[in-house]
């Protein structure tokens, strides 16, 4: 049976990208399992987790499943707003902060360089851990993504959760947790309570793919295709749904965050889209508190350019 931490050769490959020791890496069955495991292990039920807002609904569910209270702080095009994060850490005494520094779901925001050091400094000052959801690292369209937040943290306050399900295939349920120091020790000690190991065959498939010449060629093609799909979505919205305002053009990821005119009922909009055979994310689900405006999330990762254009056409049609 494989080690609960994962196949050593795969862990070495994953560790290299984070400039981590092989022993800092735990292989898990996908990013979602990693989030649940980290939150359940590093915080007691009833503790508070702070998340940027809007945020990934799966992280909110992971925190709720771990019995955590959730507090939110706003973000902008440069990521979480540092002053608000500092205030919330003071108020709640939270020991966990959930962030997506690269191409955040749903907004596509990238944490600004000057804010990265401030986040790590705040975590150290408050004795907190930053859970870095690094799901979109390989999905940058224009140049390379900033390095993982983990690589800027020498003291073990950043715990990174990464996944191969997004850049490789949704069917490859494999990810990793990268953690050093006390957080890493706690996670390693608890690993066997979660499951005995990720299936060795799945790990060997991932290792073979990551170490082959196919991997860089795949990423190049993936980024090109996602860029074309993003552009097709934006063009279709501008021409057929001009009332939907794109908050910002994402430079990576698979999502587009858009705002509807004031007073629009997002429930009705998404229900009508569903009846037309189009899945659109209701922006309400990405906020812990009341949504400040009517937002939608359009995802372009799983649809061709033709399907994207057809989907927007169906949404734009007046009701019969």
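Sequence proposed for the structure above (320 residues):
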């Amino acid at each position: 049976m494989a080690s609960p931490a994962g196949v050593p050769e795969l862990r070495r490959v994953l560790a290299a990208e984070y400039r981590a020791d092989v022993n800092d890496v735990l292989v898990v069955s996908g990013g979602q399992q990693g989030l649940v495991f980290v939150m359940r292990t590093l915080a007691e039920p009833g503790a508070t987790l702070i998340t940027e807002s809007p945020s990934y609904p799966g992280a909110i569910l992971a925190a709720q499943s771990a019995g955590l209270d959730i507090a939110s702080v706003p973000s902008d095009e440069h990521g979480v707003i540092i002053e608000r994060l500092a205030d919330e850490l003071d108020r709640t005494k939270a020991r966990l902060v959930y962030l997506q520094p690269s191409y955040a779901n749903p907004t596509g925001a990238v944490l600004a360089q000057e804010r990265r050091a401030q986040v790590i400094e705040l975590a150290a000052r408050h004795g907190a851990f930053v859970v870095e959801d690094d799901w979109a690292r390989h999905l940058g369209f224009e140049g390379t993504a900033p390095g993982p937040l983990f690589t800027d943290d020498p003291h073990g306050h950043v715990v990174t959760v990464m996944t191969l399900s997004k850049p490789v295939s949704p069917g490859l349920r494999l990810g990793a947790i990268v953690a050093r120091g006390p957080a890493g020790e706690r996670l390693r000690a608890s690993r066997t309570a979660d499951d005995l190991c990720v299936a060795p065959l799945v790990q060997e498939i991932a290792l073979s793919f990551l170490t082959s010449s196919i991997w860089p060629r795949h990423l190049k093609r993936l980024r090109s295709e996602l860029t074309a799909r993003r552009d097709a979505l934006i063009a279709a919205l501008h021409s057929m749904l001009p009332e939907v305002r794109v908050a910002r053009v994402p430079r990576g990821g698979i999502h587009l965050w858009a705002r509807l005119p004031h007073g629009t009922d997002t429930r009705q909009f998404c229900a009508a889209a569903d009846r037309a055979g189009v899945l659109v994310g209701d922006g309400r689900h990405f906020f812990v508190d009341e949504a400040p405006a009517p937002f939608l999330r359009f995802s372009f990762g799983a649809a061709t350019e033709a399907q994207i254009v057809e989907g927007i056409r169906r949404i734009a049609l007046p009701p019969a």
